[in-house]
């Protein structure tokens, strides 16, 4: 492809199609090799591009990538937010267009900073720029680190490196392998040897890391009952449905086998009102659980004056409460409010103007086990969840993925939870309203699952673990600094060569 100049129309088609295909590398399909293949095509299309053409190629790639990857925003707004279809489509389009800025600028900056006749340096530069764009996307305007390419390796051959480099480090390696693949094909034999080494080394390191234990067992195993009532989103906040919801959760919790259970976990907003509103109704159930020595963790809402928090509460015992810190765009607050505030009155999402929790993010002590709690979207942020380490011996995430409808998003969300388990070498229990609920071991493997759109319970035994992985110690700083240095050196060298 090095000296082959494709017609512009074909370049455009390949750019958008490669972006459209890239989401197949994520759950539920998890075709990890697709990430390498599509990024290979994207990078190859940039080889002969001018800066202006690179902007266009990157924009088309991003349009396909995010148009498919985050299309679930439409369901959240239209089907469950009561926004009329044209408005929901418009807001989703605006959101996708904002996301396309990242691959577009990555392509533009790469073309501006690439080195003449240095394909290996250019491959590293592209990987660095890509990861910096992902890191910025994860921070800008509260961040949106959805479908990072590193997630494609949750079940892929490089996934064993997650405890060392984290998901952004995996993104760097995936993009580097794809870009180096282009260099391998287009370079002379001498450079092909270097390219081959760069492609193979991450795989070798991953295989070598496979059996390394980054955490160790601590304390006794915990028996957990996960409850998924499968209450449809359009019914969830109905006042008339409240009593039925409480009945569903309490009756499912009390199904046979309860005598062996230590902790019961209900999903996010399982109690779809303020905890204080249902205390009298719930007292008999909570008292019966206390008598059995069983803790029940439930999602719901906590009111503090004018502030409303999405929270998880220990219904009995110490009645510990965790308040959600990282809110979901559109669902819990309106992103880009200075642009989109006009649309807020047309969207009816219950409890959609919430307050973020604050203060130290510390685990709950439940049954003698330190449990790190996160709610919904928070498990997307590995850097923030590091605050729960090393004290947390078990991670629990509650979610309400019903907002995603029947899209791929519930499966993608589970994949992100699996990555957190990998990064921190901790078992993770995630319970959702309509699925997917899953028990995940410390290596990111699903050991039990309640499927999407299914009501049911699942009893699992999890072994708490202690210790710190390299990623838990450092977070994203190493990959950020490496990428930043690569870009700075390349930019300075390019500027030097221009004189």
Low-pLDDT parts are none
Helical residue percent band: 40-55%
Q: What is the count of β-strands?
A: 14
SSE arrangement, N to C? HHHHHHHHEEHHEHEEEHEEHEHEEEEEHH
CATH superfamily of the largest domain: Carbon-nitrogen hydrolase
The assigned structural class equals alpha/beta
How would you characterize the overall build of this protein?
This protein is of the alpha/beta class and 499 residues long. The protein has two domains: 8-212 and 476-498, no CATH class; 217-468, 4-Layer Sandwich (Nitrilase/N-carbamoyl-D-aminoacid amidohydrolase). The chain is built from 16 helices and 14 strands. A six-stranded mixed β-sheet has the order 6-5-4-3-2-13, with helices on one face. Strands 7-8-9-10-11-12 form a six-stranded mixed β-sheet, covered by helices on one side. The chain has a two-stranded antiparallel sheet with strand order 1-14. Strand 7 and strand 8 form a beta hairpin. Helix 4 (72-78) packs antiparallel against helix 5 (85-113), helix 6 crosses helix 7 and helix 7 runs antiparallel to helix 8 (189-209). It is globular. The chain starts with 7 loop residues before the first helix and ends with a helix.
